[in-house]
Request: fold
Amino acid sequence: MEPKAPGADHAAIERERGYLLRYARLQLRDPAAEDAVQETLLAAIEGAARFSGKSSLRTWLTGILKHKIIDHLRRNSREQPLSSGDDAAEADAVDALFAGDGHWRDFSADWGNPDAALENRRFWAALELCVQRLPARTARVFMMREVMEMPNEEICKALDITATNCWVLLHRARLTLRECLELQWFGKPEK
Amino acid sequence: MIPTCKETSVLLSQGQDRRLKPSESLRLRLHLLICRRCRSFSQQLEFLRAAVRRYRDHG
Ligand SMILES: [Zn+2]
Reply:
């Protein structure tokens, strides 16, 4: 029998590797994603006694992984700044969604019961495609917000961008993803 | 004053990330009362958030 408490047992930590890797790969490419997970597992095993059991093991490990991911992102952005892309073109693409009077230009599709999409395997491919098409910096901010659930201030600090810029990029990301999902999924007669 | 759809989309987006000021949420609600598209957009934003989290956790 393994001791129950306090602390986390090593086998249980190791069992979360797959989940953590998935999570890391949403933010980083390999080998950085694998490195971040490895660092997380090591830190967790070294600090296993600090796991209080108040949250789930997965939540605790994910918290450690977030810090490792942010370290990698900071390092990456120092070595190879994310291209801010064509900022004017991105802004134009958002403007094009609205008519001159600020109303939606083209917003016809009814998504019906969108939750049904979540049960369809091919929907996830459409979502992946749409995220991949986002400009790098826009995607980065969106993923930090939605996958890592970081508050805006932390995203700004980690990427060294202004709060205003952060709001703008999130708004763009969401509008662009909405548009893309409509084209790639909800507006298609056959799915 | 009632905001346009474009301004409303900004408020809806920021509403996912911070608590809106009372004046902002009043303006937002006024617009949503009269605009079906923005009501859809609001639901689509929630769907998008839920979908990404589901993808993260189970995908
Ligand atoms: Zn509207």
